[in-house]
Amino acid sequence: MDDLETRELRYFAAVAEELHFGRAAERLGIAQPPLSRAIAQLERRLGVQLLERNRRGVALTEAGRVLLRESRLALDAVAAAVRRTRRAGKHPLVLATKAGASHELLQRLLAASPPVEILLCEVGEQAGLLRDGSADVAIMHHPYDDLAGFDTEALQVEGQVAILPAAHPLAARETLTLAEVSDVPDLPMARWPRLDGSYPDGPGPEVRTQSTLAQLVALGRTLLVIPASSRAWQWPEHVAVPVVDAPDVTTVIGWSPNSHSPEVAALVRNAVALRAEPQLSAGVQYLPDLLADPAPGG
Q1: CB within 8 Å of 184: residues ≥ 6 apart
Q2: Torsion angles phi and psi, residue 60, rounded to 5
Q3: Is residue 295 part of a domain?
Q4: Which of 6, 54, 187, 254 could make an SS bond with 152 (beta carbons 3.0 to 4.6 A apart)?
Q5: Considering the domain boundaries, does residue 121 fall inside one?
Q6: Percentages helix, strand, coil for the chain, rounded to the nearest 5?
Q7: For residues 120 and 99, is the Cβ–Cβ distance under 8 A?
Q8: Which CATH number do you get for residue 168?
Q9: 37-73 residue pLDDT tens
Q10: In what order do the strands lie in the sheet with 238-243?
Q11: Which domain does 150 fall in, by range?
Q12: Do the Cβ atoms of 223 and 186 come closer than 8 Å?
C-alpha cells in the first residue's frame, strides 16, 4: 500500500533532520523505541532503506534524501491546507505584497475587488507566505522573487531606476547605466538577500527592509536599483534616475495551483483586467490581455 500518513512523514522528517533518534524523539514528544519501530515499519512498507545506522550515528541514504525533500513539501502543503480551510468563508482573502512595490497597480486592484486583507512583507517573503497558507495570493516580481510551484499571471513590465541621495552628483543625471551605479566609491550599492537568504559580495550595506534602506539612502550611505513603480516610497531626500540598461522587471500575481477558490479566481481576473488599462507610471507597460480564462477555478 502506497498511502503514507502525515504522522509517518513527521516522524521521518524529524529523524532525518536531527540525524539522531534520541533528539528526534524529544523533538516529537514521544519515546525513542516507538519512533525507531515506526521508521523501521516505514522502510518495510516502502521497500527501501531510508537511513544508515552505525556506531557513528545516522545518515540518510539516497532514498532517504528524496523522502525528506518530498516530506517537507507534503507537510508544508498539509499545514497550508489547514490554514486556508480555517480561513475560508470567515475572512477576506489575504494578499501578500512587498512594502512599497507596484503601488499604483495595487491601488487599482483593491479598488476593483471585494475587501482584501493586505499582508505587507519584506523582500522575498511572499513565496513563503503563499506556501504555508498565510496568504491566498501574492504580488511578486520576476526575476527577483521565487515563483517556483505557483500559478502566475504577468501584469506589467517595467524598467528600473536608481534611488540616490538628492545631494549626490549622480542625482542630477537624466539617465544612468548599471556600470555607473555599480562603481561609485562614496556610494556603494545596497545588497538585497538572494532567494536562498544569502547576500552577494560587495562593500554596500546588507538590507532587508524598506525603512532601513530609505534611511541609508537619505544619509548618503548607499544607493539601490529598483523597479520604477517601487519609487512610490521614496523620500524627499531621494532622487530616482532611470537606469537604461537594467533588465526589465515583470510584476505577476501568483497563487497556489491547488486553489479552487472562486474568490481567488475573481481577484486574479480583476488583476488581469488591469493589463488593458492605460499606462499609469513612466516606464511601466501593461501587458495585453492574451488569455480568455487565466484564473483558477475555471
Answers
A1: 170, 223
A2: -80, 140
A3: no
A4: 254
A5: yes
A6: 40, 20, 40
A7: yes
A8: 3.40.190.10
A9: 999 999 998 999 999 988 778 899 999 999 999 998 8
A10: 224-227, 160-165, 238-243
A11: 88-158+248-286
A12: no
